[in-house]
Amino acid sequence: MSDNTETFHFQAEIAQLMSLIVNAVYQNKEIFLRELISNASDALDKIRYQSLTDPSVLDSGKDLKITIIPDNNAKILSIRDTGLGMTKADLINNLGTIAKSGTKAFMEKMQESKSASMIGQFGVGFYSAYLVADEVEVISKHNDDEQYVWRSSAGQDFTVTRDTVNEPLGRGTEIRLHLKEDQTEYLEERRIKDIVKKHSEFISYPIHLIVQKEVEKEVPVEESEEADADEEKDENKAKIEEVDDEDEEGKKKEKTKKIKEMEEVDEELNQTKPIWTRNPDSIQKEEYNAFYKSLTNDWEDPLAVKHFSVEGQLEFRSILFTPGRAPFDLFEGKKKRNNIKLYVRRVFIMDDCEDLIPEWLNFVKGIVDSEDLPLNLSREVLQQNKILKVIRKNLVKKCVEMFSEIAEDKDNFNKFYEAFSKNIKLGIHEDAQNRAKLSDFLRYNSTKSTDETTSLKDYVTRMPEKQKYIYYITGESRQAVESSPFLETLKRKGFEVLFLVDPIDEYAIQQLKEYEGKELKSVTKEGLDLEDDEEEKKKFEEQKKEFEPLCSTIKEILGDKVEKVIVTDLISESPCVILTGDFGWSANMERIMRAQALRDSGGMTSYMASKRTFGLQPNHPIIRELKAKAAADKNDKTVRDLVNLLYEAALLSSGFSLDDPSLFSNRIYRMVKLGLSLDEDEGAAAPSTETDAPALEEVTESNMEEID
Questions:
Q1: What confidence tens digit (pLDDT) does each residue in 128-153 have?
Q2: Quick check: 362 pLDDT over 70?
Q3: What backbone torsions phi and psi does residue 297 show, to the nearest 5 degrees?
Q4: Is 577 helix (H, G, I), strand (E, B) or coil?
Q5: What is the rounded CA–CA span in Å between residue 577 and residue 504?
């Protein structure tokens, strides 16, 4: 040991801390490089700040950069910066003690979480070097002091020596990590590049990697080798040709040989600059597109970009992108959500922060760079961080603004809506605060807009004066809803009905109760007000009284299959429909819930499945004939069978599924037999054992035509 070496004892807390770091097993050891690069960047910031008032501080070196040098032979990884450097006193105080009161809190957190990602949060980033190194040397030169070496093997003490051995740094600090036997992966060029790209790609200063590479070089052939080659030529000489000057030049060029030798290669790792720190007005669209592709590895240009900064009590910058298409695994449940990368002062922190952006915006890609968050964040800290909640609120607000900008271009918005309409509808379901704004982006086909989709805003402008509600119908497909009996009266009255055929529409529409003061009403539910005038209402009340006996008879026949039987004015061409209660599931929602793989067959399903109401159209000839037949003999088997047949047909046309399709089929087959004037016992069909489906022995030919 040199005469000018001094030994110092670590502060007790530091010794305990290093023991904890060295002896514990952590998965994410790579963060040591992020921490050391961040420290180097801070040192460069300090010297740059000093140079603003005193340019002479840069006389010892104007080039501000960070250099990483792996030495495979010695198993040493060096991180060098041309920053402020440390005096002897700085080395002793900064690396031997910690003034921050958070050290004990940090150690407690480390013992609880066993996560190396906690490092950095409490100002102990330097000691992360001991995750991968047995011994650490810190060589540092400050403008106001000599060059010194700080050295420690993570024991109880450390040494500080005046440096007379290593090459002069000029100014700055070099940290040499003597790597553990099992941590030599951090000397590999590919590994270093990956870590820098992931964590430190947008550090303000250039990060250089100096590696030894084997390269092929052409060198002149030595004279002895040339002589051997000439002898061979003499032996094999068969004919003599004239050689012009050009050939002689060619021969001279050929008198070289290729050899392999090691060469030092200096490569800059962080050439992608953090464009979010620049003024948006100075950035071209091509630059945004290039940045998006480097950030996401997408090959297509983004559909839209939102570049903004927030200042005041909270300060952060962000760039958000809307992709041109939806990924195939957009709603994959176990997919890692890594579309928004979180940076703190241009240092990457994490890319799977669930609290940063809501799930319905999981397709938006981009970065957030905060000035206020601690340099390192564990998930536990994030959950309690109020700053993060403010960032989230701002991101959602800016995303909605970005979608509004997309909506200004019809073609772009059609492309956006085709890809991400489910996300918008999920947002309406989940995000109460932005529900009204998101409803502006909804687009649907309707009875008056069959070729192109329409917005709710356009729908409202087309509404007749007497129309109070926005009408919609949900169903499995557009074809199914277009031919639905529920549209008959509304079409006749000139009221527009929206077609909601996406399963998620059912969920979204339950939350979106109204739009611009107009209540949304399902046309398949009971109690729909069709804005009838007084005369129509009076006539309808009379029909209700007239058909009360038939309604009672049908309720007796159907029993618990329906809650009640009523006369309805919702249909004008069909004889009957099945209506659902105002607060239960619609037929379409019931179908969706039945299709759930993990659904609860009892409980919620039985509670929410709406009670069915059988609605009769009083002016239809079938219903009038049935009324007459029931009035003559309500126990007539034909009446019973016709009621069941009408009920099952109404179930199908109203969007429900049949509980017993074979029973319905048998009824249809018997009707076909009747139409063909075949006897019941003719044919090979087995006799029906159902008590609810007796033979239609009393149906006359004229009645049959009416039923058809």
A1: 888 888 899 999 999 989 999 999 88
A2: yes
A3: 60, 20
A4: strand
A5: 25
